[in-house]
Design goal:
Largest sheet: 22 strands, antiparallel, barrel
Number of helices: 6
Distance between the termini: 22 Å
Strand content: over 45%
Mean pLDDT: 91
Number of strands: 32
Length: 716
């Protein structure tokens, strides 16, 4: 196979990448060696391998991803389980408060942003079925490599590649899941298939995945509480469609069209039952019909890419994309106070529910090559453009809660990477110029906000975002690095605009809409040699006008803009043992975050569970030999006390630990697997519920108890 075509195919996502962690060769050898071992992380916007970049990067390969999805059911849960600095998931459709290094990550599919920061519905972790994802690339810490949203890092899901062999191929998956008591209500199942075809220069991949999830039960056999407003993954149905069509224009140039549609819809068969936070009784559920339309998440996406790995001696990557999402939020057991309007119905009787509507399109362009005559210097030049329109409407009465908000970003950027002393030292750095414009027309808030008239406007934001670092690699596979990178996002503009209660506000001078610029400084050491794969990273970041989510008594979150500082330590270790096929691993993260509560310029109050993850220790043992493989993993979420003048002791975290396991056996007729989540049937209150809203008895959600997933997968 032509090596240059392979690099282009890798960059476009046409072929899966091997995991980088096993490569211990110097950079030049890694690029110049066997093409099948080329190591590229597309989210980093370069063909240089990770050891040439001053970044903390991880890649969850296909086998590991499938293993974790069999246990927990989603890509988001897989990432959260394997990454110690990621918050424990809420096990809900909403990922509100789930952070990476204490800040929100940017979710992307093949580099296409899935997040909607203008009115963050927190559904961006559920936009494609994991069956169609070949790997997940994680870049940790604030950065602007993919533009807006990467303040905590980047979670890039790379979809299945084009078939390598002529003719028809594919794979299929059947799964059945059950709760600990194998009750009818807890039963679920999944059917998925992908058919691929290649003839000469043309290839096509078409697939579908359907999943039915039953009710979740906690460790005491009680139905897990239903979050009617934010939405559930339990008691739901999901349909995910995927298509990829490619054409090799030349030996080095490739054209790809990728389309996907994902819809998760709650069945609406259960009503919420209040728990008792003070008494330690979890929120639960009972058969019933909640009011309104069940919570739903729907995302549709199209992307067209053209790549050429030998354009003028360099690598060219281009992409245009379109993405549309609709997030429908359910209704509460009682009419939501914020939606009441005496002009429509008596206060306390009006039922309504909201829906986020977002549409984005844009393009990405980059060109990379070594400088002629100075091959040790690699330069990248590129340009990104993004347009996003988002609004939030009340669908029962067709009222506008969040006015239509237009976001436009134009961003040229450049990167440089210089190898010195034969690769002993590398210097890397870059600059990105962001020109952002937010446009909101005149609007009037809801009656609950005083029907306040707000003058529209078009505030702009211009900034130069910098990144740079140095890498020292005295021995192949052993390196140390130091880096600095800036990232940015906009605050949840929707939460801010819908909450305006002060007359005379003008959007052009409303400072709370100014973007959040965060930085990430880190020092890292990595050892990837022989049986050892280890890393340690210390990081710290700050933002002068960060974003905090503050819950009101009615459960609606508002945004506060205050100085935020976060620091932490991450340690990961994996060792291949003398027993052939056995690997032991451990991961630890300690994160501390504070904000300036009294606005005196000094941070003094701890970030709460809605804004930062707990400290965590991960332990795992994995075994693979011949057709048999197995893994046992435990996550210890450590107790935490939140300190500060306005902290509520009832929000302190008690901590808990969970253990999962999976075994798999490959036969001539496919692979058979059995996964168990929460192996010891631990009863616990989720981190999000334990650390927030201490008087809300409808927000005391227990985590899922022991559950089983039996699967069969087949490739042809």
């Amino acid at each position: 196979m032509n090596r240059k075509w392979l690099v282009a195919a890798l960059l476009s996502g046409a072929l899966p990448f091997p995991a980088f962690a096993q490569d211990t060769r110097p950079v030049d050898e890694a690029i110049a060696g066997d093409a099948g071992e080329t190591i590229v992380v597309t989210a980093a916007r370069t063909i240089l391998p990770p050891n040439a970049l001053p970044l903390t990067i991880d890649v969850i390969d296909k086998d590991t991803l499938d293993q974790q999805i069999a246990i927990s059911g989603s890509v988001t849960d897989a990432v959260a389980t394997l990454s110690p600095s990621f918050s424990p998931t809420r096990q809900k459709l909403s990922g509100a408060g789930e952070t990476l290094r204490g800040r929100s990550p940017l979710y992307a599919i093949n580099g296409i942003p899935q997040s909607t920061p203008l009115r963050d519905g927190s559904r961006d972790g559920f936009t494609i079925d994991g069956f169609f994802v070949d790997r997940v690339e994680l870049i940790f810490g604030s950065n602007a490599l993919q533009g807006i949203g990467g303040t905590g890092g980047i979670v890039n899901q790379v979809t299945v590649g084009a078939p390598a062999d002529e003719g028809v191929s594919g794979r299929a998956l059947l799964q059945a899941s059950a709760d600990n008591d194998f009750s009818d209500e807890g039963m679920g199942g999944k059917v998925a298939g992908l058919v691929q075809y290649k003839a000469g220069r043309f290839d096509a991949s078409v697939g579908a995945a359907w999943e039915r999830r039953g009710v979740f039960f906690d460790g005491e056999g009680r139905p897990v509480g239903i979050n009617l407003t934010q939405g559930e993954t339990q008691d739901s149905e999901t349909l995910s469609l995927f298509g990829r069509f490619g054409y090799a224009v030349t030996d080095t140039m490739r054209l790809d069209l990728i389309a996907s549609r994902f819809e998760l819809e709650g069945d609406g068969d259960y009503a919420a039952v209040a728990g008792n936070k003070l008494g330690g009784v979890p929120t639960s559920a009972r058969p019933g019909t909640p009011p309104g339309v069940p919570a739903t998440n729907r995302t549709e996406s199209l992307a067209l890419s053209l790549t050429d790995s030998d354009l003028g001696g360099g690598n060219f990557v281009s992409q245009i994309f379109w993405n549309r999402s609709r997030d429908t939020f359910g209704g509460e057991p009682n009419p939501i106070a914020t939606f009441q309007d005496a002009a429509i119905a008596p206060v306390g009787t009006l039922f309504d529910q909201s829906q986020n509507r977002s549409r984005k399109y844009g393009g990405k362009l980059s060109y990379e090559r070594a400088v002629p005559g100075l091959e040790a210097l690699t330069l990248i030049a590129g340009f990104d453009a993004l347009w996003d329109t988002t609004e939030q409407r009340l669908i029962a009465t067709d009222r506008v809660w969040v006015p239509p908000t237009d976001f436009r970003s134009l961003a040229p950027f450049g990167q440089a990477n210089l190898k010195l002393a034969g690769g002993l030292v590398r210097l890397a750095g870059g600059v990105r110029y962001e020109n952002v414009k937010i446009t909101i027309d005149d609007y009037t808030t809801l009656a609950s906000a005083g029907r306040t008239f707000v003058s529209g406007g078009s505030p702009t934001f211009d900034d130069v975002l910098l990144n740079g670092g140095v890498i020292f690699e005295p021995i192949p596979g052993i390196r140390a690095y130091a880096s600095y990178a800036e990232g940015y996002t906009v605050p949840d503009v929707g939460r801010i605009t819908r909450a305006v209660r002060t007359p005379g506000i003008d959007i052009d001078s409303f400072l709370d809409i100014s973007p959040i610029v965060s930085n990430n400084r880190e020092l890292g050491v990595e050892v990837k040699r022989g049986p050892l794969d280890a890393s340690a990273t210390y990081f710290w970041s700050s933002s002068k006008k960060g974003q905090l989510l503050i819950a009101r008594p009615d459960g609606i979150f508002d945004v506060q803009r205050q100085r935020v500082e976060i620091e932490g330590l991450e340690i990961n270790l994996a060792v291949k043992m003398p027993i052939d096929g056995l690997t032991l691993s451990a991961g630890y993260a300690h994160i501390v975050g504070q904000f300036d509560d009294d606005e005196d310029g000094v941070v003094e109050t701890d970030l709460d569970g809605a804004n930062i993850s707990p400290d965590r220790l991960n332990l795992a043992a994995a075994y693979a030999s011949g057709p048999f493989s197995a893994r046992v993993q435990t996550q210890f979420y450590l107790a935490r006390t939140f300190r500060g003048p306005n902290r509520d002791a009832r929000n302190d975290f008690e901590g808990y630990n969970l253990t999962d396991a999976i075994v798999r056996y490959q036969t001539s007729l496919g692979g058979v697997s059995l996964a168990v989540q929460n192996l010891f049937d631990k009863q616990y209150i989720s981190y999000a519920s334990d650390t927030q809203r201490p008087t809300d008895n409808f927000f005391n959600f227990a985590g899922r108890g022991r559950s089983f997933t039996l699967g069969w997968d087949y490739r042809f």
